[in-house]
Specification:
Layout: E1 2-5, H1 11-25, H2 31-41, H3 44-52, E2 56-63, E3 66-76, E4 79-87, H4 96-109, E5 115-121, H5 125-133, E6 137-146, E7 149-159
Parallel strand pairs: 4-5
Antiparallel strand pairs: 1-2, 2-3, 3-4, 5-7, 6-7
Helix pairs in contact: 1-2
Length: about 160
């Protein structure tokens, strides 16, 4: 497995991994809502911004030439945010998420980050387990609109 910075050429594969992961993870969302959200959050314009914004790290994981996961984080002041973290369902449990997280943390530390936050839908039990295993603690809740409905999110924080 190789972890490397994402490029513009990775956009279609990033969307494909995001789509597969969301369909596998978020049972409470219907297929149309997931597809519309992926098209919006991972569209060319959104990915272009994510790939070029200062203080940002966008990484992909490749296994046997296939993109199997990605993560996107940004640092503002002394706080780093894990904005996206996805591993293809067929490759979960192989350490890819941990490898992506560790590399993201290392890359964001270069921006003098003192704490990390991750935000995920409250319904994502595997996400909660992942973040808590890596030392994050639930510190807040918020809401996000997806598919015209408000969804509860949990904010996880790790002091460095």
């Amino acid at each position: 497995m190789e972890i490397r910075p994402a490029t513009r050429d990775d956009r279609e594969q990033i969307r494909a991994v995001a789509r597969e992961t969301w369909h596998d993870t978020y049972d409470e969302l219907d297929d149309e809502t997931i597809d519309e959200t992926i098209d919006e959050w991972y569209g060319d314009e959104a990915l272009e911004t994510a790939l070029s914004k200062p203080g940002t790290a966008f990484l992909v994981a490749e296994a046997d030439g296939d993109l199997v996961g990605f993560t996107h984080g940004v640092v503002t002041a002394e706080e780093g945010d894990v904005l996206r973290m996805s591993v293809h369902p067929g490759h979960q449990g192989e350490g890819i998420g941990t490898a992506l997280y560790e590399r993201l943390r290392e890359d964001l530390r270069d921006f003098n980050m003192k704490r990390m936050r991750a935000i995920d839908l409250a319904s994502n039990e595997s996400g909660r387990e992942f973040y808590e295993t890596h030392g994050f603690e639930p510190t807040d809740e918020d809401e996000v609109e997806i598919g015209g409905e408000q969804r509860r999110e949990v904010v996880y924080t790790l002091e460095l």
